[in-house]
Amino acid sequence: MLENHFKRIVWFLSDVPQSRIKTGCFILLILLTFADYSTGLHYGFSIFYLLAVLLLTWFVNLSTAITFSSLSILSWFLVRSILITTGNTKGFDYVILTGEAAVRLLFLITTSYVLNLLKKDYAIRAKQNEELIELGNLKNYFVGITAHDLRNPLSIIELSSSVLLDNGRKNLTQEQLSLAEMIYKKSLYMMKLIEDYLDITKIEAGYLEVNKSYNDYAAFIEEIVSINEILANKKNIHIHIEKETDIPILQFDRNKINQVVNNLLFNALHYSDPDTAVKVVMKTEESSVITEFIDTGPGVDAEDVSRLFEIYYRSKKRKERGTGLGLAISKKIVEAHNGKIGFRKNTDSGSTFWFTLPIE
Description:
Layout: H1 2-14, H2 18-39, H3 49-59, H4 62-86, H5 94-167, H6 174-204, E1 213-216, H7 217-234, E2 238-243, E3 249-252, H8 254-271, E4 277-285, E5 288-294, H9 302-305, H10 326-336, E6 341-345, E7 351-358
Parallel strand pairs: 2-4
Antiparallel strand pairs: 1-3, 4-5, 5-7, 6-7
Helix pairs in contact: 2-3, 2-4, 3-4, 3-5, 4-5, 5-6, 6-10, 7-8, 8-10
């Protein structure tokens, strides 16, 4: 919270010319000197010199701040001397007054020096952040170009192998069919990798666009489940849908949420054992609709839970290949819809991944 306020102040004052800051600080010096003289020895305003010293150090330079510190303490010393003389204060030692002035001056100069070091560190960090952003953009640019260049030939390989499988079953040997099927599956896998890389480069570059429209959410989920039943049938897994009768119409991006649901459902089917069941639960909670994907797989290791939704993170104990982007992309999409996504371990076995969409 304080850091945000500091950034706002820095952003505002960075546009103020240095000459105005200098003028303002020296006007403040005159006003504080007058206030010191008017109120007497019992009302010291010298602490407010520190504000001007901080401003000059950060927004002008260290030498100006030190000059101001010296002038402010000289002003304080002269005012105290005049007040003591006119007040006929007996027994006052000017050595003590000089020592106090020296301590105050040392405090202001030390504060200026430390703040100047922080200013330099802040500038270095800002420059490093700019360089990291530039490197990130450059990386996204090359990844995007590479992915686009790879997608066209892969599409041809995918289409060709699919046609070969559909039309060549009578003319090809079993070995040839196996090779064609392997080519087709690997091309699908590589296309999925490319799509994930393209998605994550858009997200990292801040180009994630969400085009919302009102949809029958329950029918939308049921449609996706029916498509994934082909994969489920290969492992003899039954997908069971549980839903409340009053799931409302929701506003969301069909393509983006389709990506989230397919990813979470695919993971549930992929990690579940054969001859089991996967549950897809839809229910309303407060002002959101929550969708849960409950599987009977091996679960998630404790050391992986906190990093499940990190970009490029893959558990070391997982033997399956992948990019580690699916959950990270899903998280960004759900958050772009002002929803939440999460995970919990089932009491018996398996995992439950869930996400929410707000009821608008």
